[in-house]
Amino acid sequence: MSKFCRTVAGLERLVRRSWGRNYHATKTLYAANWKIGKINHIAMACPDIEKASALYRDVLGAKVSEKHPQEEHGVYTVFVELGDTKIELLTPLGEKSPIQNFLDKNKNGGMHHICIEVDNIEEAMKDLKAKKIRLLSETSKIGAHGKPVVFLHPKDCNGVLVELEQE
Amino acid sequence: MSKFCRTVAGLERLVRRSWGRNYHATKTLYAANWKIGKINHIAMACPDIEKASALYRDVLGAKVSEKHPQEEHGVYTVFVELGDTKIELLTPLGEKSPIQNFLDKNKNGGMHHICIEVDNIEEAMKDLKAKKIRLLSETSKIGAHGKPVVFLHPKDCNGVLVELEQE
């Protein structure tokens, strides 16, 4: 490589590095009003929640809660404690359960959504809207844990239904 | 309620409680050789891993690793750090990737499996076999993190592919 080429290559690296720093600085500034946290839970829809609870409690030996009716959400929930992130077992409650359609397509059950904590859900919603991520509701709603939540469109999240929960 | 009925009801409660204690004691003894731990990661299969990485890094502001080729597993992996539990983004590498079939059925991508840590994978495998949970391989294999892993049959786990990883 000639001296000239080496100088050009060196300059290129310098520009890339400098751009990289500015890019990250801009990104941090832009997203400064909210922060993403840990994964709160992974929700699994189950045709038979007693059987699913027995798997995690009796076969795998995890700590498993009682079954709770969540009438306003159209589901029964059971929580499985596995470190900092829980599994939320769901089964339909009532005629118009929001998970019935999923269970019609997935007869054995399956992973329904993932819930990630945020420190400021209103700022997160504003920011995500500006970044062209579709939200499934205009405003946040009170979720099964009594905290504000919002769902993001699976088509904007690589095929995964993502719930954000205010912590 | 007559005195006789109250006595019978009291005895019933006593038997139920006593059976409950023995049941749990037996269970603990039976599963004493291994313990379940935390959720290590949730794996998501992605048709476009760069786009998925950008969502978690640039839109949601999470810490996201570089893309790593895992030739022996037929996938590229990217890890997203969200507290104690990671998201593992997967995309096919080579002609016979084990996640190609899943992506053919789920064009936008989706949640592929969940990985839970165990303290003794060989004891866990013996115990689960005895409890009629089908394992997808006769022996554990070295997974993408260099540790022994085994997969459990989704039909025995409420429609969810569960990976156990030795910690």
UniProtKB/TrEMBL annotation, chains A, B:
Show the PROSITE patterns listed in the entry: VOC (PS51819)
Superkingdom of this protein's organism: Eukaryota
Q: Which InterPro entries match?
A: Glyas_Bleomycin-R_OHBP_Dase, MeMalonyl-CoA_epimerase, MMCE/EMCE_epimerase, VOC_core
Q: Known Pfam families for this protein? A: Glyoxalase_4
> Gene3D superfamilies annotated for this entry?
2,3-Dihydroxybiphenyl 1,2-Dioxygenase, domain 1
Keyword Ubl conjugation present in the record's keywords: the answer is no
Domain (VOC): residue spans on this chain = 38-167
- Residue ranges that the Swiss-Prot or TrEMBL entry lists as coiled coil: none
Instruction: Supply the alphabetized keyword list.
Output: Metal-binding
Member of which family? Belongs to the methylmalonyl-CoA epimerase family.
Name of the protein in its database record:
VOC domain-containing protein
